[in-house]
Amino acid sequence: MAISDAEIYGKYSEELVRFATVLVGPDSAADVVSASVITAFRAPAWSDVRNPRAYLYRAVLNESRMTARREARRVRYEQRAASRDLVEAPPTPRPEVLAAVAALSPRQRAVVYLTYWEDLDPGSVAALIGVSDGAVRRHLARARKTLRGVLDG
Amino acid sequence: MADQLDARIRALVLEVVDSAPVPPTFEDIDSGLEPNTTAGSGQRPRRRVAVAVALAATLTILGAVALRVGSHDTTVVSVAAKPAKANDECTLITPAEFLAAAQGRTSPRVGNIACEFGPFEAADANGGSMDFYLTVDKTVGPRAAARYKDVRRLLTQKTRLSGLPPGFVGVAASARDSAVLPPVSYVAYSKQSEKLLLVGAFPMSSTALDLQVAADPVLPTEERARVLVHSLRRSAEGDSIITGLLVLGLNRL
User: Fold this and answer.
1) Which of B45, B85, B189, B250 could form an SS bridge with B225, CB 3.0 to 4.6 Å?
2) Residue from B28, B41, B178, B199 whose CB has the most chain A CBs within 10 Å, to mutate
């Protein structure tokens, strides 16, 4: 029996939001999930998808990467606009954990989350987000190296 | 050594995951879907319509640009431009509604994009007042996200073109370099006009309360601006409840 979109969403929404939180932070996570799920449900190929969970994870990862790019662009514009007339604010003390996450690329965040939270092996991570096994290992190695530097620094 | 790093990374991920918000309901998602999207039919006609609309809009814009260039009009768009009037669907909320919503006591009504540029006066407990533009939007999903982005883009364009208005001094500018934290665009104040200028999109949980402090005429304007900055930074560290957008004193620019 075919499972409805509502049932699929109900089954995976919480883990997708957790995943998006690691990728883009808590403030954008819900919007990223909404946009990703709507894109997925609208896709002509959606009815033929065999593994909706993997499809939705990839959709969230893609949307997060777009969000990160848009956000970086927006910050650049705003800093350029503001720096002409404004006194630069003193550095805001940031929680160590957010600084560490911010040091990773979206793909690295995805791999770290799926490895350390979902306890997936590199093969399963690769299958879920649609990259090669080797790419997962590379992303994980680089993420660990970056995190070691940030956490020890 | 590797185990120790793994444990620290695991703790880090746990901490981030703990801050995950509640997922949007399926009704929110469903409202973002157009009718018949699941049937698979009508996709192409809709796309054709969208392409035709986009093409018409592009041609209109190009025409307008051509006319503008032809007239040698060198005027730049400025934030001094008269704010757009709210249309019939626009629902500006009152200060009391805003505070109640921001404190979580009621659900805010949702306005539309015109609302954000309509005048709105808030009276504080001490009888002082300030003009600002406000929207509180508790909706989630692409509709809210799109509105949020449109407003931010518009503000960025406006402020980029004109910079700070005469007499305003900046207190803080955004120094965010990641998508993890919400942005604080900037806060500025003017001693002459006793106005605060706050441009950006912010979490509102503590901002609403500090707005009352910021509106307090007993405090020097600079101090009021700094109160807001502290409030916003605190909000940015994770206690946000309502995402909204606030522009103080924009009508004075």
Assistant:
1) B189
2) B178
List the 8-37 stretch of A: residues with Cβ below 8 A of B: 9-10, 13-14, 16-18, 20-22, 24-31, 33-35, 37
Residues of A in contact with B238 (CB under 8 A): 26
> How many residue contacts between A and B have a Cβ separation below 8 Å?
199
Of the candidates B23, B89, B151, the one whose C-alpha atom is nearest the C-alpha of residue A18 is B23
- Classified as helix, coil or strand, B19 is coil
Q: At what angle do helices A122-129 and A52-83 cross, to 10 degrees?
A: 80
Asked whether B27 and A134 are in contact (CB, 8 A), the reply is no
Closest-CA distance, A45 to chain B, in angstroms, reads: 9
Delimit the domains of chain B by residue range.
95-252
- Taking the C-alpha atoms of residue B177 and residue A63, their distance in angstroms, rounded to an integer, is 19
Task: Encode pLDDT of B29-44 as tens digits.
Answer: 776 664 443 333 344 4
What chain A holds in terms of domains, given with CATH numbers, is 1-89 (1.10.1740), 91-153 (1.10.10.10)
Scanning chain B, the segments in alpha helix (DSSP H) are 2-18, 26-32, 43-70, 95-102, 142-162, 207-214, 221-236
- Overall pTM surpassing 0.80 (yes/no): no
Neighboring chain B residues of A87 at a CB cutoff of 8 Å: 169-173
Cα B37 to Cα B228: distance, rounded to the nearest angstrom: 44
Mutate to test the interface with B, among A74, A84, A112, A144 (most CBs of B within 10 A): A74
CA–CA dist B102, B242 (Å, integer): 7
B218-241: average pLDDT: 50
ipTM of the complex: 0.73
